[in-house]
Amino acid sequence: MKNIFLATLVLISIMSFSTKALIAQEEQEEKIKPWTDIVKNTADPASWTWDKNENTRFAIRGDWDGDGFDEMLYESATKLFSDNDEITPLNLSGDLGVFFLINEGDLDGDGGDEVSFMTVNRDYTNLNVIRVWSYTGNRWKELFQTEVRIWDCPNYQAKTPEESFTHQWKRKNNYSLNRVVLKKHDGIIDVIGIHPNGRYAIEEIKILDKDSTKRKWGMIIQPRED
Fold first, then answer.
1. CA dist., res. 155 & res. 88, Å (int)
2. What pLDDT sits at residue 6?
3. How much is the pLDDT for 29?
4. Is residue 92 within 8 Å of residue 98, measured between CB atoms?
5. The predicted structure's pLDDT at residue 98
6. This model's pTM is above 0.85
7. Is residue 226 part of a domain?
8. Distance from the CA of 195 to the CA of which of 17, 151, 178, 217 falls in 20 to 30 A?
9. Is the same domain home to 116 and 6?
């Protein structure tokens, strides 16, 4: 009887832990706002307008300068800026903000957190670029970038099988749907990108130091035609 009681108690504990883990994962996946609140009119990219305000723009916390204290990083239409006036703003390549903004943690081992994002471009193409930046020497420096499709954006609402491929693959392989750049160990990062032959691939990026990166293609994946 005692053994049955203990077994039941263990089973309940496991179920409780699994439920909490699932809830935590769902909460994590809800942190990134929908990407569609960035533009009002998609008919003509030239007429796109920034549809964000103080309540909907991205704001994340991290130790960007590596001084041991966290700061905020805010998104505006043209730059990312901190509540720490000593941190130089990061100028964006466009004027409509970003599709997402993520604190990737300390990827290069310099003591400061890195940030990843995808800017909003005024064009008809579905190609875009994931960028990772680090604040080093009182200035922002791009660690690396990789070409992706617009639907690789973690908070994109996929509508077609091709668009949903990345999200389905990530879910199947236990990747977080809210992270495009994934911190592994010893500075190794995985990015779902586009292989030179046009197919999707997992790009393994090893940050060797503050000035160089080593890239190699890992497993090549491709959307099923059906």
1. 27
2. 55
3. 46
4. yes
5. 94
6. no
7. no
8. 178
9. no
One domain, residues 84 and 39: yes
The DSSP-derived string for the chain is -HHHHHHHHHHHHHHHHHHHHHHHHHHHHTSSPPGGGSBS--S-GGG--B---TTTS-EEEE-SSSSSS-EEEEE-SSEEEESSTTSPPEE-SSSS-EEEEEEEE-SSSSSS-EEEEEE--SSS--EEEEEEEEEETTEEEEEEEEEEEGGGSTT----SHHHHHHHHHHHHTT--TT-SEEE-STTEEEEEEE-TTSSEEEEEEEE-SSS-EEEEEEEEE-----
Q: Which domain holds residue 11?
A: 1-30
Residues 113 and 66 in one domain: yes
| Closest to 190 measured CA to CA, from 174, 178, 205 | 205
HSE-up of residue 160 (Cα within 13 Å, Cβ side)? 9
Q: Is 152 exposed, middle or buried (0-12, 13-18, 19+ CB in 10 A)?
A: buried
Q: Find out whether 107 and 187 touch, Cβ atoms under 8 Å.
A: yes
Same domain, 179 and 105: yes
Report yes or no: 130 and 152 within 8 Å, Cβ to Cβ: yes
- 61: pLDDT strictly greater than 70: yes
Q: Please provide residue 92's backbone torsions phi and psi, each rounded to the nearest 5 degrees.
A: -85, 160
Are 126 and 116 in a shared domain? yes
Q: Name the residue with tokens 């190609």.
A: 127
Q: Are residues 119 and 94 in the same domain?
A: yes
Specify if 21 maps to a domain: yes
Placement of tokens 């703003």 in the chain = 89
Whether 171 and 141 map to the same domain: the answer is: yes
Residue 140 sits in the same domain as residue 151? yes
